[in-house]
Amino acid sequence: MIVAKIAIRISLNWPLDAQGELPFFGRHVFHKDIIRKSPRIVNDDTWRFNTQSSSQWDGLRHFAYQKEQKFYNGITMNDIHGENATDVNGIHAWAQKGIVGRGILLDYHSWRTANGIEYDPLETGSIRLDHLKEVANAQGTEINFADILIIRSGFTAAYNAASREEVSEYSKVIPPHFGGVEQSEEMLEWIWNHFSAVAGDHPTFECWPTQKTWALHEVLLSGWGCPIGELFDLEQLAQHCQKINRWSFFVASEVCNVPGGVASPPNILAIF
Hints:
Blueprint: E1 9-11, E2 31-36, E3 43-48, E4 56-58, H1 77-81, H2 92-95, E5 99-106, H3 108-114, E6 125-127, H4 129-139, E7 147-151, H5 155-161, H6 164-171, E8 179-181, H7 185-194, E9 195-200, H8 216-224, E10 228-230, H9 235-244, E11 248-253, E12 263-264, E13 268-271
Parallel strand pairs: 5-7, 6-8, 7-9, 9-10
Antiparallel strand pairs: 1-13, 2-3, 4-10, 4-12, 5-11, 11-13
């Protein structure tokens, strides 16, 4: 199926410094140094940042099965940090061919607003599976096997609309409270049957803190090796999809080639 027809390209990358001085989960602040190379009229720069403080793909070293203490393919913390540590499960493996395929946007934020459904992306709350299926039906979006699922929860829109004082107070909540998809076996079965990767504009993709004794991160990353994208900037994408009445597109994402890396900015485009 041809999904890129008119070569309109839309970035889904939130600025690396979007969270300013208040990144969630106590992560490092983005810092940029511009280096003047006098006497030549030349500049270099250096960047220092946590790979998960803005748009990101969670890699297979990020979140283990907590009880079993095992990452994908049975890798342990000792395999990553121990005396004989290797780069196993590193983000560089995905850099070889990228994360590429047919993407679909489920614009939950627009759908639930139109239907008067209460949901605050800045508070713990679950996006129900039956609601996501209704979004797809309302959009007329066909779901194909191995699609890349992208959900617009409204998080970045709400975050950008909040005052700095509100964000400061919000960032002090421990553990952080985020809306996201529900933790359920039905949700896992739906993802397993349809999608090669999942992503959204929210910080954790799933409702946080988890409402179960387990988290989707454990199963998706450490059980299946399924990439999880978070904090994608979906505002322009949602506008364009609404304009052309089409919510499917070609996704091209090339993670950073860092041997043994845990996560990466997605460097992602939606192409129509």
